[in-house]
């Protein structure tokens, strides 16, 4: 019932760059009690500060998961915490005392730089071999480079690159593999040096952001194919195969145009993608641009492969789609939890193709929610959807400066798993604006026993 969250206590950029927040304190891993029967329900019961500054903890992963099924020597007892900016990787012992994680090992940035020529680590997955693989977004100079670092699953030493020399993708971000079909597919965010201090639309036109999926042979590690998603697929972030290990399809959320693409294996054996969801931009005034995209930033699929969820970080809503018909997702749940188009805010919606009223502010237990829903995590039974509001400190500061000052939050959505539907649980709130060391930005969440975005079945 405990939950681990990456908290960017202090956010930073590369050396010699200005900090994104005024707090010069270490990031930390927070453990939150989510058991309604507990006396410490909704409280941070432990904080593990990192021993360094300027890390920007972002995403995390396990040392073991379903890919190691049948190997009695493997336990889900280490949480891998890559640092998006410092390129440091922390290995945290969450097995000895799950309510009080402790530091186990640090992998220094130079190991990634010199052994792999990579930097800015992002997504972690365990492999059936017992090794750990981490996708990276750049090279040590801040240019885009989508390669993969392999760690030894016992010593956590850097082994080297997973991909062949010279075959790294132009950009990197997320990945998912499907062993039964001998395939891995990776996505693209952008060049670290372009996105670090905020989003500039000009950088998209200059080619500093990605719009492709990369298909890899899981056995030989060779890059087989690049699927160009076009302008509607710009900035493809989180990618999810269906959980069914026999499935040859899945979905990827594309941030810039508010789209979700379904990718699939064709009858001739290669891979293709089609747009299946589009959240239209809204014409606005009182904002930076005349049109505001939804900015889909996180997606996930329920363990039974029935529902797809995603967050619209600018508009401020979470959506639930029934994906029983894989090619025609059907919207069955929606809830607004903040965002940039609130009815009492400075932005006025002039034209909305969906004809939705501007939402009211989200207030839970007297706390006004600043920011918007971003990272999602779904319980294995599919009934509880947890959400945090921080994306990345540089973008937080640009789009939601109030969240920098007031801190982010963790919320819970109750899910109707029978008919579809999302309802905010107003009895649940973790307010990271009240942390002992000052307001914090909470990002990714993990269940100690496994969740809907960490396990890959073989």
Automatic annotation (TrEMBL):
Q: What keywords does the record list, in alphabetical order?
A: Acetylation, Cytoplasm, Membrane, Nucleus, Oxidoreductase, Protein transport, Selenium, Transport
Comp. bias intervals (Basic residues): 1-15
**Does Magnesium count among this protein's keywords?**
no
Q: Name one GO molecular function term.
A: methanethiol oxidase activity
Localization of this protein: Nucleus; Cytoplasm, Cytosol; Membrane
Q: GO biological process annotations for this chain's record?
A: protein transport
EC? 1.8.3.4
What domain of life does the UniProt record list for this protein's source?
Eukaryota
Indicate the principal place this protein occupies in or around the cell.
nucleus
Q: In which pathway does it act?
A: Organosulfur degradation
Q: Which region ranges are annotated with the description Disordered?
A: 1-21
Query: Topology relative to the membrane, per the entry?
Result: Peripheral membrane protein
Q: Which reaction does it catalyse?
A: methanethiol + O2 + H2O = hydrogen sulfide + formaldehyde + H2O2 + H(+)
* InterPro entries reported for this sequence: Se-bd (IPR008826), WD40/YVTN_repeat-like_dom_sf (IPR015943)
A Gene Ontology cellular-component term: cytosol
| Protein's UniProt keywords contain Transport | yes
Q: Which PANTHER family match?
A: METHANETHIOL OXIDASE (PTHR23300:SF0)
Could you say which protein family the record assigns here? Answer: Belongs to the selenium-binding protein family.
Please give the function described in this protein's UniProt entry: Catalyzes the oxidation of methanethiol, an organosulfur compound known to be produced in substantial amounts by gut bacteria. Selenium-binding protein which may be involved in the sensing of reactive xenobiotics in the cytoplasm. May be involved in intra-Golgi protein transport.
Write the protein's name: Methanethiol oxidase
